[in-house]
Amino acid sequence: xxxxxxxxxxxxxxDGVGVAQAEAEKILNSAQAEAQRxxxxxxxxxxxxxTNAKNENNRIVxxxxxxxxxxGRNLLISFRESVTRELEAIISESxxxxxxxxxxxxxxxxxxxxxxxxxxxxxxxxILNNDDIKRFEKTLIASFKERVKxxxxxxxxxxxxxxxxxxxxxxxxxxxxxxxxxxxxxxxxLSPKIAKLMKEAE
Length: 202
What we know:
- By secondary structure, the chain is α+β, with helices and mostly antiparallel strands.
- It is built from 5 helices and 4 strands.
- Helix 2 (103-116) crosses helix 3.
């Protein structure tokens, strides 16, 4: 009887330990699976954060580079505009000096001589403003001499500040050597050359 009782106790112990061990293994396996799930989620979140951080960093770097490039372009444009304005001011000042001096008289004489030497030109009208007519009329008429007989005439017109205009063969179109036109013409001629030099210097 004692032997049977002992066997029963041993069996109960063995079965209980087995059940406890199985439960323990089940709990351990579940804990390990949960731990792996948490680690995987944490790794995925970390990868996501790292990817977002890299993307944001790339965006900031690109944005900064674009801003620097734009600032450089703006600076260059501003510099070119400044140079162009300065160039126009120099041309305007130089033209004004020339047109307010006796050089204007020599320029008019030279242009009229070249035009009147053209056999197709029957008559030539030189238009000056009233101030320049008063300054140069006697000298110009004396310089033109025979050319006046061939149809070179002087005419006053105050629609421009300085310089002169020429009408050939009573045409409705005139050749404009006024101060404003010469400044614009020289500026238009020189500006692309200045821009090209600045481009080459980049």
